[in-house]
Amino acid sequence: MISLIWKELRQLLPIAWLWFAIILIGYASRFIGKRIDEETFGSWFENLLAVGSDPMIAAVAAVVGLVTAWALFPREVDDSTIDFLRALPVSRVSVFVAKYIAAVVLIAILTVLSYGIDAVVLAWNPESIGGRFYGQAFATMLWRDIVFSAIIVAHGVLISWFRVLGLVVYALYLLGVAWLESQAGGAGVFSVLSILSNEFDGSRLVVDLRAIVIHVLVAFFVLLIAYFLWSRTPSMRAGGKRRSVSAKIARGLMSLAAFVAVGLALLQITATENGGLIDDSLEVATTAHYRFAFHPSDTPTVEYVLGHADDDFQRLADLLGTDELPRVRVNLAAASEHAAGLATWKTIRMDLDTFEADVSQRRVLSHETVHVMQSVLSNRALARHYAATRFFVEGMAQYLSFIVVPEVERRASNRAIAAVAWKRQDIRFEDLSDAEFASRFDPDLYYSLGDLWTESFVSVCGEAAIGDFLRAAGRDDVPRNLVGPVFWRDTLGTIGCELEEVNERFRTDMLALYESTDRSRFPRFDGVEVTRLDDGRVQVVSELMGPEDGAGDTLPLDVNQLPARFTIRVGGLASLVATVDPVFRGRVEREGDDVRVVYELPARAVPRTRFEYQLGFAPYADSRVWYDTRRTGSASRPASE
Amino acid sequence: MATRALLGKDLREHGLAALGLLLGGFALVALAIAQNRAAAFSMSPFEVVRFALITFVPLIVLTVGNRLVVREYLSGTRQFVEALPVGTSLPLTIKYLLGAGFLILLGVLLIALCTLGSSAADDVTAPWLALLLAKTVVILLLYWSIVFCFSLCGHLRIMLYLSVLGIAALIAWSPGIDSSRFAPFNLMDRDLFVFERDVVPVADMLWTLVIAAAFTAGGFLIARLGNGAVVERLAKPMSRRDFVVLGVLAAAGLTLGGLIAEDQSRDPIRFGTNTVLRNIDPAIEMYYAAEAYRGRSEAFMLLVKEAEAPLQTVLGIESLPVVRLALRPGREPHDIDYGTLDGVYVAANWMEHDSYDDAVLVAVVLHGLLSARTGGRAPFEPHHWVLDGFTRWWAETLGDPARLRNSHRDELLARAAFVAARLDEDADLVSTWQLVADRFGYPSAEALAFSAMHYLSESAGSNAVLAVGRAFLSEPVGASILASAADRRRPSWQRFTDATGISRDDFLRGWAQSLANATREPGVASKLAAVPPIEAVIDVADDAVPTIIAGYRATHGSTSLSDAYADTRCILRHGPLSAFDYEFDVDDEDELEAPCALDEQAHTLRGRYASGDRVYVALEMESPAFHQPLRLDSRRLNIP
């Protein structure tokens, strides 16, 4: 057996050199641009050890595993060299196992080599804190990556029997995982990528053992099937060609049936969601600037929106100082639990179920229209600097849409929420323009704080400044490599406006707004307890405290002024697709003067032990939700699992 | 006739595979459409066209190239075809056209399926479909031309594919490169590819076709060069020499890429308003917000100018970056923003500052200047104590020890003595600087470093301090592994000894003694006496709700604190830590305040952190005797 493995390893040498070259190029590129003795364990493994799983890393590891597996059998069968092996006095099982072990050993050697280089690099950092090395996490990553590769090689050995068809099926599997994530929020153990999911207990890397065990068992089963297929496949010279033609025809017919069935089933799914392959039930109406598609049942609302659409459009164009008026296509028949509206280039989709009032739909249309104009006027520059400008992108749309379509109560409640969050969470411009804002604070604050910042911006720089900013951002000679803060100063400098002045005005405006806000509707959470219930659900219980006074001291909780509803938002579980974090309602429980809020999360929302969440409440009826800072919860799985 | 025969041969050989690929593509597109429908932020099923073109379609194109070209050229079976009286170009042309035709068919199928999955909301019109199809075909032809050309390069093709992939990644993701200036990238723009209906990107399409034509021509050229000798040579396994040549080319490419990525120098952006003070040499700009703040701001700007101007001369630095100072009137005096992305930028409120606070802020500015000067190397731990100590010493003395104010000296030495008394005997400025700053906070670490420079100045003269500054802080350090190696060639203490002529042990011994002596000076002793005789106690309760408990106990066995500490505030500051340690300073966003009393449970933090979290907890006291909070102790906790 050992001789067979050695022989296979020798045969895999070309591919080993390829992986070796790629590893070296990867390290060389890191060594050229960085002083690597300043790298810490966390910075060096920043992506590999991010909480959750990174699909790009998993994809690279999977490609290495699949390509290596592909080098094991297909060529031997095509070139008929498999016959030499079969002529040896060893069983076909031994040949099969030797090939599989050789591939895994090769990847294991490369993995150890790569991690060895990492260890040497990290050992070079002499710093007393930055130079710390985490042996448990390092060793765990090492063995987990090897196990993952072994599983992928097993998949690769099987799908290589089906050649291209196998790749297509594998791609279908991955798309299926993505579809499951978009449907259920996460694919759980169905996704082989879950093996690479990171969770930490202190500095200890905790692997998903359940996922590993399941996928190892699946891989074992897959290997059995692969052995069955490959051991019965004759080489080309041994008559495989003649037989393979019929096999190919049979396989082709099976594939045809399978593909047609899968494709039609999928199209049926989309058709069901959309009311038909071509949804003839939608009606279309046009105005000077818009083309609307909508369900006939929404006609009253649409008539109201249509009645104002062109005037609102023109008003927005005037506010932005432009006569470059794009024609916009609007899908009013979209269903989305995530957003009232979305805009891409000159296309808008809106979910009319999000708001009750027609005037709100009209304002959402104005909001999304501003996004269209932002893209056109700035030549999509804001999208290029999205992390640094997102609060302004949304804030500007809020600000202008509220001017064109005033919704006084909604805007007031949004602003009150923003003011309390601004003060309690000490949010500054540097936070607003930071790429990590959404992971540190409530992403909805992009809208309300952005609206307020835009107002300060306009009061300092003038009404025309918004349109001028967009045009300045999109000018041809603007350097494309500006980091966020420099982009802001560069663009504002071009229109003769000073960021410092805007930020100072924003601070004073926000302070005044905070002082004038009735904070009795903004209690505070404290003493949060997280428990896994016997049925797998997770219970989060928080005590409710009174708000702070001007000096920062806690006031008594006014039980007659409790928020309209309580919610909890749980960190997303998807790794392949962008989804929106699921939100669940909470209930208030009282015991004498003590008030607690109880949230119960379904088991699927917390598939592992630790999870991220934000507690929140809607301070007023029909208002947005105010969210507290992000927290981490810990709920062990039930013993039965 | 020959054409038909060759066409028939290829169709017989690859027809089934082509059907399989089409069916596979069909299933993938159908699944992608289903996924698109369910996705949170999708706009139209036609987004699948672009998604397909950048994900699985390249794989299909690779497969087509592999079957049509690579197999025949690597195995040498092309020679059977070439032996026929049809020449060398015709079989290749047929293969090219077959591949292109198949891929165009795939493109049509792709768009047809998306059309089937669309609704009236997608406003499917013939001109728009034609535009989308034209863009798709252009991109497919580009893919196919590249694959066709590389497929004729035998074993070299893998390297070529990797190179193209690397170049594409560089263009797409390098912040220094504007990808929209490259026709294929602009054509594939995320927004415009599907959603632009009115503008036909003629120039981008033509340029992309020109690139495709160049690759196609390259393929035919390779096939014909030396009557196919080149193709034959490329079909043989690569020799070691080939690998070496490729290695050199790859290294050259990477170096070039690195240079492109690093070439991002430009002038800093200036303040653009009237309420700005400007100084030309050294280059300093100050935004002072309003006329009411102008007088105090001018005074502070003068301090910065006085500190910066001679520094350049004494350290032998030819140029320093622009300093931009922004007044933030609403801030606490010690709430400072600091950045070196675009010159040196410091935002703070200096309106309520006294001379000690001014010195703190001037030191911050100098810290930024020298940090930028060394390419960010100065804050590296072996150098950091020099950076902190030198900048504070310079801010206090401008190189003349006689300028050091006694009150500043007393406060700084008291802080330093407080820290030194709590450090292990073998604690070393070079190798434990981060630990010192982490445990006692940056103000105290800076004071400790200042005391070292102060001792050096007193024992060996100001020139010794300046020599240390020159040795550690005057030279730019590059950003590469070689730069690291060059900087680490001389150990820090060796560098110190070379600059001052004082050995490490002598310096540390003398410095420790000087600090011990300083504690007996009345000014320093009175500051130290303002620190309550307490030590911090930090623990995590073993409770259902994770609870951090912190407080204070007496250092000398007493049971109560005297009224002398009535003005002293004790504060717990906390913040979440990542799983792996790095330099970190807790902000004052999350804090709990309690009277300074002998209470081991003065602060209780219940349910704020969960089991498995890592938390930084610091206990500090604020006293009128000290300008900045004095950190009593801190810990990095794992919540069980």
Which features characterize this protein?
heterodimer, A: 641 residues, alpha+beta, 4 domains, five-stranded mixed beta sheet, globular, B: 640 residues, four-stranded antiparallel beta sheet
Folded structure, characterized:
The complex is a heterodimer of chains A (641) and B (640). Chain A is an alpha+beta fold. Chain A has 4 domains: 2-233, no CATH class; 236-274; 283-516, Neutral Protease Domain 2 (Neutral Protease, domain 2, Orthogonal Bundle), CATH 1.10.390.10; 522-634, Immunoglobulin-like, CATH 2.60.40. Chain A has helices at 2-11, 13-33, 41-44, 55-70, 74-78, 82-87, 92-123, 135-161, 164-184, 209-231, 236-274, 299-319, 358-377, 381-384, 386-404, 408-424, 429-432, 437-440, 445-461, 465-473, 484-494, 499-516, and strands at 199-201, 204-206, 283-286, 290-294, 328-331, 341-344, 347-350, 524-532, 538-545, 565-570, 583-591, 594-601, 610-618, 626-627, 631-634. In chain A, strands 8, 9, 10, 11, 12, 13, 14 and 15 form an 8-stranded antiparallel beta sheet that branches. Chain B has 640 residues and is an alpha+beta fold. Chain B has 4 domains: 2-262, no CATH class; 271-373; 376-529; 534-638, Sandwich (Immunoglobulin-like). Helices cover 55% and strands 11% of the residues of chain B. Chain B has a 5-stranded mixed beta sheet, with helices on one face. A 4-stranded antiparallel beta sheet of chain B has the order 9-8-11-12. In chain B, strand 1 and strand 2 form a beta hairpin. In chain B, helix 6 packs parallel to helix 10, helix 14 crosses helix 15 (381-397) and helix 16 (406-420) crosses helix 18 (442-460). Chain B is elongated. The mean pLDDT of chain B is 87.
